[in-house]
Specification:
Blueprint lengths: L4 E5 L3 H11 L5 E5 L2 H11 L3 E5 L7 H10 L8 E5 L4 H9 L4 E4 L4 H75 L3 H14 L1 H7 L2 H7 L1
Parallel strand pairs: 1-2, 1-3, 3-4, 4-5
Length: 219
């Protein structure tokens, strides 16, 4: 049995009682409003799944109610069935202009009412599912982007730390290379070679494993 909430809006008590008698046995939760302002407030307070809205009402007519609800991001996805006079084309066109989802003509047929209500509620259920799904996907994307940013920040932090640690070693290598160049009268290209080999193979290994006589012969 369904448990969706339907708001019925009409200034005629007879119409409200009739629709209530038809819909409650189908398992729907019914709320009532007798004018447009009351309807807008109830929609904002209770968020019904569907609204059946009469057009001709005091205080605020159905067109204005529909327009306000469809312009509000919080209520625009709630389907609205507008109740019009029989074969009144102008009323339906005006209803479409304020984004009504469907129409019922007076006198209302019970079977037609049931079918239109079920169809619109199925569409809304699917729309709600897609909206939740999109929200979940958007959240996952945000979390992945944050993970990437965190990884990038950590990588930069480690690189900066490594650079700080390697600075003294680089200074030692340069001093060692300079002393060798001065000692063996090595030209500038040979000095660059010593530096590059030291950087590539590892500073400590090069210093300890290279003997000055073989280095001089190579250069």
């Amino acid at each position: 049995m369904p448990n969706e909430k339907i708001l019925l809006v009409d200034d005629e008590d007879t119409n409200l009682r009739l629709l209530t008698q038809w819909l409650i046995p189908l398992g729907y939760n019914i709320e009532l409003a007798s004018n447009g302002e009351e309807a807008v407030q109830k929609v904002r307070d209770s968020r019904p799944d569907l609204i059946i809205l009469d057009i001709m009402m005091p205080v605020m007519n159905g067109y204005e109610v529909c327009k306000r609800l469809k312009q509000d991001p919080e209520t625009k996805n709630i389907p609205i069935i507008m109740v019009t006079a029989l074969h009144e084309r102008k009323s339906k066109l005006k209803g479409l202009s304020v984004c009504a989802n469907d129409f019922l003509s007076k006198p209302i047929n019970q079977r037609e009412l049931t079918i239109r209500v079920k169809n619109l509620l199925k569409i809304k259920a699917f729309d709600d599912f897609m909206l939740r799904h999109n929200e979940i996907l958007a959240k996952q994307v945000r979390e992945k982007n944050q993970d990437i940013r965190n990884m990038s920040n950590e990588m930069m932090r480690r690189l900066m730390a490594a650079a700080k640690l390697s600075a003294p070693i680089m200074n030692n290598v340069q001093a060692w290379a300079l002393s060798l160049a001065e000692r063996y009268n090595v030209h500038s290209n040979g000095f660059d070679t010593i530096q590059k080999f030291g950087q590539f193979f590892g500073y400590a290994e090069l210093i300890t494993e290279t003997n000055s006589s073989s280095l001089k012969a190579d250069l």
